[in-house]
Design a protein that fits this description.
CATH class of the largest domain: Alpha Beta
Largest sheet: 5 strands, parallel
Distance between the termini: 59 Å
Radius of gyration: 27 Å
Strand order of the largest sheet: 2-1-3-6-7
CATH architecture of the largest domain: 3-Layer(aba) Sandwich
Number of helices: 21
Number of strands: 16
CATH superfamily of the largest domain: P-loop containing nucleotide triphosphate hydrolases
């Protein structure tokens, strides 16, 4: 029976509960039975492995400390079996290290002791609502491009979507960090709940606590009614903390407590309220360097950076620029109510050579400007108005002395070097492009793209000249 079909009826959903304390085992079993789930209980690691061999489960709930091992061993065992089975680990109160270790090992989520039944129910519902691998939307469908870098990103997103572990997304400004966060959310168990993006650098320091945690009426001057904060708005869903390195140290302490305890206290409130939020954070800064410089707390970094996703800069995905640019032009056309503009071959070549220090965001700005300024339906190189990549150039005599070509001819020189390397590889392999690509250390698709850009054709092909 397919997993999606088994999830269709509550009575077919089964949970494996592993705990060596009879009282805890009974409490968990009763709670899950009231939710309409089938339960199999085990007191030891060995007993749990036996059940996994003979039965099929939709969720495993295990204590961290067992008589004959630890819960992490069970997480790794399930992973080695190749089972599509989310595992939640019960950790001791205040044991942040164990929680992080469980998530790094591949656990879906964790729940601290003493076990809160509301938190447990929320976790179980999230785990059982994970999309089936064969039916889930392909993560990153709109992360256009087939470069190795973007292909790797999509593969990581597919894995991250099936866990509740905090994710830290690194990358340069404009490289698509928020887009990646949205795809992780959209392909996970929280996809039907809110996705709340927050720019940490745009909030005044004196308003941070009330903006993040909310406040009660009368908590301060101007608080004329209760108001929810970002955590309450994202409850059940995902909170995306963009530019998290800009948080002041005082706020970092409070954020750390909320992440560890999964509870928030509104400004002016006397008690904490539980929140169920997945944290995804990002920054263009080097967060590890911020820790070394004393600008970011090491313990918070440890909790946020459970799994890191690196977004590649656009200059590492040059072969993807044509399809990305085409998508951007189509979106601009829809916004303007016009037919999509086209890029001339020369304009496309100009874009493919440019380094894009602002990445995709800069590409969007360049194309929006070119669309507005171009008087024709086809965008030409002059319409792009790309900024020069080198402002301070070496004196011409110094350049000659070092044996380098003049800076103005650098693109031509690089094309010549690339052409010679490709032609040498093709000649050595009798124009077997698959073998040539392997020899050059690039993909077949990359080689085909470069041959088209440099107008390298196989001998005897139509239009082949003296090459």
């Amino acid at each position: 029976m397919k997993r999606a079909e088994r999830r269709g009826a509550a009575r077919d959903r089964r949970v494996l509960v592993v705990d060596d304390e009879p009282d805890i085992r009974e409490l968990l079993e009763l709670t899950l039975l009231k939710m309409g789930l089938g339960v199999t209980a085990a007191a030891t690691l060995a007993e749990a492995k036996q059940h996994l061999e003979s039965e099929r489960f939709d969720l495993c709930l295990t204590d961290m400390r067992l008589g004959d091992g630890v819960g992490l061993d069970l997480v790794r065992h399930i992973s080695s079996m190749g089972l599509d089975l989310p595992v939640a680990v019960i950790t001791a109160y205040g044991s942040a290290e164990n929680a992080v270790a469980a998530l790094k090992a591949g656990a879906f989520d964790y729940v601290p002791k003493p076990v809160g039944l509301e938190q447990l129910r929320a976790l179980v519902k999230s785990a059982l609502s994970l999309p089936d691998d064969s039916h889930a939307a392909a993560p990153g469908q709109q992360l256009l491009g087939e470069s190795p870098a973007l292909t790797a990103v999509r593969e990581v997103i597919a894995k991250l979507a099936r866990t509740q572990a905090p994710v830290y997304i690194s990358g340069e400004s404009g490289s698509g960090k928020e887009l990646a966060a949205r795809f992780i959310h959209a392909n996970g168990a929280r996809r039907d709940k809110p996705f709340v993006p927050v720019n940490c650098g745009a909030i005044p320091e004196n308003l941070m606590e009330s903006e993040f945690f909310g406040y009660k009426k009368g908590a301060f001057t101007g608080a004329d009614q209760d108001r929810d904060g970002f955590f309450q708005a994202a409850n059940g869903g995902t909170l995306f903390l963009d530019e998290v390195a800009d948080l002041p140290l005082a706020m970092q302490v409070k954020l750390l407590r909320v992440i560890q305890e999964k509870k928030v206290r509104e400004v002016g409130a006397t008690h904490e309220e539980p929140v169920d939020v997945r944290i995804i954070s990002a920054t263009h800064q080097n967060l590890a360097s911020c820790v070394e410089g004393g600008r970011f707390r090491q313990d918070l970094f440890y909790r946020l950076n459970v799994i890191e996703l690196k977004m590649p800069p656009l200059r590492e995905c040059r072969e993807d620029i044509p399809v990305i640019a085409s998508s951007i032009l189509a979106r601009i056309a829809v916004q303007n109510g016009t037919a999509p503009a086209q890029l001339s071959p020369q304009a496309l070549e100009e874009l493919s050579r440019y380094d894009f220090p602002g990445n995709i965001r800069e590409l969007e700005n360049v194309l929006e400007r070119a669309t507005a300024l171009s008087s024709a339906e086809v965008i030409q190189p002059d319409d792009l108005r790309l900024k020069p990549l080198v402002d301070e150039r070496l004196p011409e005599d110094a350049v000659r002395a070092e044996g380098y070509p003049p800076v103005s001819s650098l693109p031509t020189y690089l094309d010549q070097v690339e052409r010679e390397a490709i032609l040498a590889a093709l000649a050595k392999t009798n124009f077997n492009r698959t073998a040539a690509a392997k020899a050059l250390g690039i993909t077949f698709r990359q080689l085909r793209y470069r041959m088209q850009r440099l107008e390298i054709r196989e001998p005897g092909a139509q239009g082949e000249g003296s090459r």
